[in-house]
Specification:
Layout: H1 3-31, H2 34-60, H3 64-87, H4 105-137
Length: 139
């Protein structure tokens, strides 16, 4: 299938989903029944996430160069996640009254690891922003 025909198919799918969304919006304005609108929203979200994953895998396996760069990014992400997990502890936090929160040690550790991952990625993005600004200043 050529690139042009794939774009046409994607456009037809987009127009169909957009038309159904408008029709359901009108039905919602008339009936005020949010159940069908919520179900449609969940369906659109699942469709969007699925299409992003499918097209990402198609793009990854389209050439050897893109596959290698994607594998390097996944490896770096895995190493950062391992570092974050190693930095996190499994202590169960206390609430304001001094009573332990009703979570397990595993949930506490993964929550901490996620926060450390956020801090690491935020720091890396800040450093890359500074690097980009300094590099563009000297060009």
């Amino acid at each position: 299938m050529g690139n042009n025909s794939a774009i046409k198919i994607i456009n037809y799918i987009f127009y169909f989903l957009f038309t159904v969304s408008i029709a359901l919006g009108v039905v919602f304005m008339i009936n005020s029944n949010e159940d069908i609108l919520l179900i449609w929203t969940y369906g659109l979200s699942i469709f969007a996430i699925g299409s992003v994953v499918v097209f990402a895998f198609i793009n990854i396996f389209s050439s050897k160069k893109s596959m290698m760069s994607s594998l390097i990014v996944f490896a770096i992400f895995g190493v950062l996640m391992l570092i974050s997990y190693a930095m996190a502890n499994d202590a169960i936090p206390l609430d304001a009254a001094g009573v332990p929160v009703n979570i397990t040690a595993t949930v506490s550790r993964w929550s901490g690891a996620t926060l450390y991952m956020l801090y690491i990625l935020l720091g890396l993005s800040f450093l890359s922003l500074i690097y980009t600004e300094i590099r563009s200043a000297f060009k």
